[in-house]
Amino acid sequence: MSKTFHALILAGTSCGAIGSASMVATAQGRTAEKPPVTTTVPSLNFYGTPGVIDLPSAEALPDGQLAVGVSHFGGITRTNLTFQFSPRISATFRYVGLQDFNSGGFETFRDRSFDFRYQLVKEGRYKPAVTVGLQDFSGTGIYAAEYLVATKNFSRPLRLPGKVKVTGGLGWGRLGSQGSIGSPFGVDRPAFDPNDTGGEPSTDSFFRGPVSPFAGFEWQVNDRLGLKAEYSSDAYDLETSLGIFSRNSSFNVGAEYQVTQRLRVGGYYLYGSEIGINAQYQLNPKNPIATFRLAGPRPIIVRPDRSTNPAAYATDWTASESAPLQVRDAIEPELRDDGIRLESITVSATRAEARVSSIRYDNQAIVVGRTARSMARIMPPSVETFDIVLVNNGLALSKVTVARRDLETLEFQPNASELLLSKATIGDAEPRATSAAVAPEDVYPRFSYSVGPFLRPSFFDPDEPLRAEGGVAAEARFRFAPGWLLSGEVRHRLAGNIEDSTRLSDSVLPRVRTDAILFAQGGDTTLENLFVSKQWKPSKNTYARVSTGYLEQMFGGVSAELLWKPTQNRLALGVETNYVKQRDFDQRFGFQDYQVATGHVSAYYDFGKGYFGQLDAGRYLAGDYGATFTMERQFANGWRVGGFFTLTNVSSADFGEGSFDKGISLSVPISWFTGRPSKQTVSTTIRPVQRDGGQRLNVSDRLYEQVRDGHLTDLTNDFGRVWQ
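-> structure tokens emitted (724 positions)
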């Protein structure tokens, strides 16, 4: 290190007392995610929605709440998944088993359905909450109903302990089958047809037919115990006619107990003849199971005052040809210890650019903050402006520009994150660093591998609703140059029962997904994927990818993608084209005869506050043409919950059960469970029915998913953690 450069580094660290104070204050004052706070949330009914016992209420769950419920009575088991998508909107997916449904037999009838609720009015001091709901609006219609319901809470009524809530409403469909008071919107309503393939919204039935009043009462005696009673307007005509159970009364009563903050259980006496049970588990992505813990960041070293020490701000250090290398060698190990990889660094007398990628964090604001801290510690005092370019898999996502003086003066302000964000600039990044940039000597090639367990679930086989296989997976990734990746994964199955299913495909379409059982029977050791890809930025606002090889479990071939996504624009546009061939069932190196050209034009839109929409239009794996509509909610800690549906030129009859493709996607960061920073997630997609229509290629590393968390909206949403 030159004498001049060494002297400037010493000048920058001359305020040691200030640096030490900064370290202590940061360690004590950093904002970590707090553990969940105990709150009172609405209890769930037997349908998994806010309600009394078997009837709905008008309450909404806390925003973002995810609830799983299982209820059983009279030979009817309902498994429910409810998500409060927004403060007013919630949706429920339900899987039902009805014993002895077939007259004279002992088979269990399996049914899937969706609910939708919208809270019209929030509860006030004098006004009740009011909600309108659609129950089983897109299934076979066995539980189809609509309702308008109001609920009001009263604290310590008649000086009783606890809280009382009263519910009253009007129901149509099933909820209008007992004690009807008329048919104000028409009498025509199709009857349930057990041979209906279901899946299509029954809009011609909504709020049609008889309407009946219902009512309920809940007394939350204390934090643990709740008592319930209701008058039900559901006659259960179908179930009683088949002898599933006897309905002797319209009144239901029960008691519930809050076992833990998330778990609630209850026992009930229903319809004058049946004992029922209900277990409900509620959680919120905003409240992690484990408190997020992060080692305190390094202190920001404040430069000496220019007026009293002008020599510290000299710029002659730039005359040394080795200065960039010395800066690199000083900052690279510090960033690496913080879980950040230095891709390259460029320095001048007053400005420095660091291109960095995250090894450990799924939150880019943390990467920005810790990189800025290291730059403030290492750079000579004359360097006033820091450009931090966020990089993911060789793609430069965005450039965050911060002034060094802002880092030095804002850290301990009460609203430091907001102040720094208001002064920072987030813009497009150049595709590549300038020729003056220097990179660590070992930045490429990079090799990584992982060995661990895998679990592949299979849902809703009527003979066995939940099947799965699991074993050991080994994955290797070799990045031999910027943007280049050679990746492969081998799996060995140790146990499972997917291969035991006897329900082979009856599809009239090319069997691009419904032969999953044959793939499961192909062998215990399989090649999940093996491909090489290249991705790059043709310009500031565009991203490109080409992949070839065994791209997924069932298909191999070539995939190419181009994405337009300016950093500050909520809109992104993309096009993808693929030519693929179906793999052999043993998932080794062979192919079957089926081949197809498939591709889509896509539009992505960031609605703000964590809501994302996506539209993909094009040709699918079975050769059908259509579009997929996706809506997703993403939380600041990485949780993602979404729903999608696909409409193509395949008729309902040709598609088969379910009429069209639809499902729910869920992705949970590992850090939510462990409290430790990690880029790993656990993801799954739940489809009520897996058919061949509307199926896309499962290619790895699609561009939009790599890019969006480093752009304006995600960065600003997460910027509160920039000082961590």
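DSSP finds twelve helices and 30 strands in the chain.
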